[in-house]
Amino acid sequence: MARTPFLTPSTIADAALRLGDREGGEAMTMRRIAGELGCDPMALYRHFPDRMALLDAVADLALTAVPSPDPALPWDERLRRVADDIRAAALAHPGIAGHVAARPPLAEQGQRIGAGVFAALGDAGLAPAEATRAAQALVATIAAGLAMAVRAGTRDARWHQVSDVLGGLPSAPPGGELHTVGSEEQFSYTVRLLVAGIRAEAAGSA
Amino acid sequence: MARTPFLTPSTIADAALRLGDREGGEAMTMRRIAGELGCDPMALYRHFPDRMALLDAVADLALTAVPSPDPALPWDERLRRVADDIRAAALAHPGIAGHVAARPPLAEQGQRIGAGVFAALGDAGLAPAEATRAAQALVATIAAGLAMAVRAGTRDARWHQVSDVLGGLPSAPPGGELHTVGSEEQFSYTVRLLVAGIRAEAAGSA
DNA sequence: ACCTGAACACCGTTCAAGT
DNA sequence: ACCTGAACACCGTTCAAGT
């Protein structure tokens, strides 16, 4: 009676995302996802080769909320916005955010967003080969910032020590000025640094 | 007879690192680390509160090979070198490299290296509060590049698709020019972009 | 003080059937 | 074609003893 009539990759990913939202990332086991759907754990293996592939699909699903970069905006604004949007979309689903950070999705949504990033870098004046490298750098940076946010937001107290460690060094600033590790401000700052580097690169090769 | 007389955090971390080097990261379970030492798995809990804390110690141990940045060098050269050195030290121990990337060590070695980074950023002309933010950005970038290298180097075929995906976009470069995801070149390029951004930031606030 | 051993409450995944 | 159920080979960790 607790069984759903259909089982598709999409209904499975939906159920897993829902479960992760409700009970956290560690709850997303094959057994408990199956429980959410009212089916046997093994039924999932008909639609995904293994657990990682299932989580990849959930991660991609979470990125549907990210708008495609608007070509009417300046390229640097587009890059900064897409970074913020990816961060926000991932953190809206804390259960899968860690997976998004650890394995940037390359499925449907990932490719859509990647194309927007690539176009923005082209408009920045980078040649295709440079744009590819810069896109990888940007993906890595977004992933890293997101990973920090995920851990800072959950129970990794170690991350609060980063500020303490740096703050304890000679000539450190008064504590109040520190940006929290994983904060939106710190994320935006890092992306801004990278975008400034891209601008310098584009100017250098122009 | 297969038992070691002493069990200390240091001998445990050594054994775990050795095991990881020999049999890979997944082999570093409490049970198998204990097997390497010839002791009961529960004996490890007398020296570490849980598995994560043990792996943190192993990760920090792997960073002993990273030289402290040489203050005689220009600040940007110092930053680029320490990034390369961290990457090399982590990849020299593939079993723990993923953990270094996922949880940048904050213990003894991490603090030593962090102090060197902070000093270099001060020499770049950044005020302490800015240097703290930039140091966090650099740590995030190194961690992200390292994470890419770890996955590209092991069995995550998905990562080779990144180039394919970007390469399949309109106006993509000829395939041969692409830097492999996770390569040393791509890592250095990303760090270089960030350092260029830091330089721009320092110039702007000078 | 330090280590052990059995047990608890789980995992992902394979395999042989079921309908 | 699609799903099930039992089983395999593991996990991290708690708890009550041992020496």
From TrEMBL, chains A, B:
Keyword DNA-binding in record: yes
Record-level GO BP terms: negative regulation of DNA-templated transcription; response to antibiotic
DNA-binding region: 29-48
GO MF annotation list: DNA-binding transcription factor activity; transcription cis-regulatory region binding
Gene3D superfamilies xrefs: Tetracycline Repressor, domain 2 (1.10.357.10)
Superkingdom of the organism of origin: Bacteria
InterPro entries referenced in this protein's UniProt entry, alphabetically: Homeodomain-like_sf, HTH-type_TetR-like_transc_reg, HTH_TetR, Repressor_TetR_C, Tet_transcr_reg_TetR, Tet_transcr_reg_TetR-rel_C_sf
Key words of the record: DNA-binding, Repressor, Transcription, Transcription regulation
Residues annotated as domain HTH tetR-type: 6-66
Pfam family of the protein (one): TetR_C_1
Coiled coil: none
PANTHER family (UniProt xref): HTH-TYPE TRANSCRIPTIONAL REGULATOR RUTR, TRANSCRIPTIONAL REGULATORY PROTEIN
Record's protein name: Tetracyclin repressor, C-terminal all-alpha domain
Protein source organism: Jiangella alkaliphila
